[in-house]
Structure formats: structure tokens, C-alpha cells
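Re: the pair you flagged

First of the two:
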Amino acid sequence: MRAAAIPAPAWPAMPPGVIAVLFPLGLLALWSVSARFGWFPPQILPSPTEVGTALLDLARNGDLARNSGISLLRVVEGFTAGSFLGLLLGIAMGLSPKTEDYVKPLFTAFAQVPTLGWIPFLMLLVGIGEPLKILVIAKAAFVPVTLNTLAGIRAVPSIYVEVGALFRFSRWQLLRKVVLPAAIPPIFTGLRYGLTHAWNALVAVELLASAEGLGYLLVWGRQMFWLDTMMGAMVIIGIVGFTFDRIMAVIESRLQRWRLA
């Protein structure tokens, strides 16, 4: 006879939001305890209090606002340029198989080179000034936006196009009133991923070739052995990136509900 299975203990269900808060709080508590008992030297792992004090100092002297503003402006400019080009190319390939046949192989080869891999080449072309940052950020956003726009247009049901033909829509009317509205959710997913990639690329290029911005604060803190400043910059970078992703996720979820409706 088979033994009866012992039921697993029923743990009280916790809302996902509570778990999402408890986990970082637990890490913060572990960080505080390790700093309190000296598990790591302060030169390697400063305490949360020291990091908070460094952030307050940066906020008081204006360095935090100035460098954050510079980084945000670079992201806006690069993301706008890369997304615009990605939308155009994705729409062109999605509507024209012949265009995709011509462009897709070159685009695939272009996309396979990591964003950081383009920095040395772009340095030779445009130097290390602002154009370098904008081009690197634009490339990071360009690839996911293009791919998701192409996939979104190709996923539009053919019956939608047939209905547009019944109304005798022109090619432009068909694109504006039928194809693009139906493809908005996957296109917006590409914009969300593009923004995430753009933010990551911004930090990377500022680490390598910049004297301003949040990425520069990381390098500056490391060079001066101010680990509290460096970790404070990391905290701000993480918060801004998380905020960007959450905003885009909320908008995307609304678009997904519209599509399901």
C-alpha cells in the first residue's frame, strides 16, 4: 500500500508587492549588519549611512542634480533619434518583404556587434564629445525598436488588411488606421526595451569617455577612492533605470488591455 502523502504546510500568501519590498529591505539590513560588525573593510564596503551622507553632500553642492540632468538629456536625445530610425526601418521592412530581403542581412550583422563594441570605431569618427554619447545611445535603442516594430507589423492579422481594402483605404490610410494601431503593443514593447538598453549604454559610455554625468560620478568616486560616492551614484542609476522601466511597463500594460479588449 502506498503511504499517504503528507500535505505541505500552508504558508500565508503574501502579495507580490510586499515580497518585492521585503527582499531589498533584507539586503539593506544585511549590508548594515556587515558594516556594523566590520565583515568588510570600510574602504571596500562603506555603510549605508555613509552612502546616504555622500548623496546628501552631492545634492547640497548641486553635483547630483547637474550630472543627473546631463545624463537624462543624453538619454532623451539618443533614445529619440534611435527610436525614430528604428520605427521607420521596422515599418519599411514590415510592409515590404523586398526591403526586408535587401536590408535584413546588413541590419542583423549591425545588431550582432555589441553597443560597447562600436565605441572605439565611433571615437575615431566623431571624437569623445557629445556626438559619441548620442550615437552610442541611439544604436542601443535602434535595434530592439526595429525588431519589435517589424514583428508587430508582421503579426497584424490579414483580415484587418482585408477590411481596410473593403473601405478602399489608400496605402497611407491603411498604415495609419489599421496596421499601426494593431501593432502598437509590440511596438511599445520595443520602445520599453530600447529605453532600458539606452540607459545601460549611457552609463557605459559615460564610464569610458565623459567628464560629466552619472557614469562619470562612478569613475570619479573610484579614482578618488570615495567608495561612498561611487555606491551613491550606483544607487541613483538603479533608481532612475527602475523608474523608467516601471513607467513604460504601466503604459505597456494599458496598451495590452486595450488590445485584449
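Second of the two:
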Amino acid sequence: MKSMSLLCAAALATTTVTSRAVDATEIYTKTCAKCHGADGRGDTKMGKKLGAKDYTDPKVQEALKDDSALKSIKEGLKDKEDRVLMKPAEELSDEDIKGLVARIRSFKK
């Protein structure tokens, strides 16, 4: 009986993690890919205009800190002249934002 409970708990946890990964991919595709590109390279018209980083670059990934990425997604980004580079993701939960950071991390080659 205990092993069956553990098996069910493991299956549920796997399903939850998988659904979060799918949600993060969907959120990224809908809200981030326009600038950052589907592949995370930032090689889009808007990405080039706004100076989006190439998240496939190991040096960019190394310099990116999770807490900084979380804050940037949650609060948005402005340039030195106070122009909006990235709007805040006000409609996303903290879990959604953590999923997006994990998605960004997945671009590392």
C-alpha cells in the first residue's frame, strides 16, 4: 500500500512539473518570443531594436542571475533614459515567472 501511494505521488509530481514546463513554454511563446525569439537568441526585429540578449550564449547565461531575471520579468526593464524596454509581467504568478526563468535557462547550449 505504501509503495502504491509513493508511486501515485511520484506520478502526480511528474505531471505537475511537466505541466509547468508546458505552461512556461506557452507563456514564453505568447509573451517573450516576439523580442527574444523562439530560440532565445534575440535575433528578431524587436529584439535587435531593444538589444535583447542571446540566451543561447553560455557567457550570457553565466552572467544572468536568477533573482535578477525574476525581478526583470516581474517589474519590467527600462533603459537609462527611462524608456520601457520590457513591460512588467503583472498577470503572471511567481511560479509562472520561475518557469520562464527555467525556460530561459533551457536555451543554454
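The chain has a mean pLDDT of 85.

-B.
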